[in-house]
Amino acid sequence: MNNAQSVSHSVATTSNHVEFSTFIPLKFVKRGGRSVVEPPENVAQVIKDHAQLPKDHAQLPDTKLVEGLTRAFYWQRLIDEGIVRSGVEIARQEGLDQATVNECMRLTLLDPKIIDSILQGTQPKGLNLHWFTKHTIPALWSEQHAKFQAIADD
Questions:
Q1: Does one domain contain both 82 and 138?
Q2: What domain range includes position 126?
């Protein structure tokens, strides 16, 4: 029996209708006359059952890669709006190495179709955040597709 309750919050934005949802499985139990919140015994299965993925969806998005994309676009926006002057300043403020910030910001150069595949979790299996730190990203989107197709073929 699944006695987990969910606490969720959804946000829908833009004309493309992007929706984010957070699911937190909770179980309320009484201990010493007080209600206590704890995870259900089968928390992994509860989360898996709650996931609303399309039937043809083979894998979940790579959370580290999505986080990297998020940071990259946020940092680029800070630079574009003049809030910071460079990746060096971001690195100093975030307590990160300058190279880490610059490598991450290269993700903003990706073809929007590739970004979409990353957000959908349909990018080639070997394409993760670590891969981007070890390889260059071609400037032309057509070359990016060819390079990423080669990863999928491996």
A1: yes
A2: 63-153
Q: Which of 88, 78, 5 is nearest to 39 (CA)?
A: 5
Same domain, 93 and 130: yes
**pLDDT tens-digit series, residues 31-42:** 777 777 776 676
Strand 34-38: give its sheet, edge to edge: 5-13, 18-31, 34-38
Predicted TM-score (pTM) of this structure:
0.62
Closest CA to 62 of 8, 153, 18, 125: 125
The count of structural domains within the chain is 2
Q: What pLDDT score does 12 carry?
A: 47
- Whether 55 maps to a domain, the answer reads no
Residues 144 and 85 in one domain: yes
Instruction: Give me 100's structure tokens.
Output: 């880490």
Segment 91-146, tens digit of pLDDT: 999 999 999 999 999 999 999 999 989 988 888 888 899 999 889 999 999 999 99
- Whether the CA torsion 126, 129, 130, 136 is positive or negative: it is positive
* The residue to which tokens 């309320």 are assigned: 28
Rounded CA gap, 21 and 10, in Å? 4
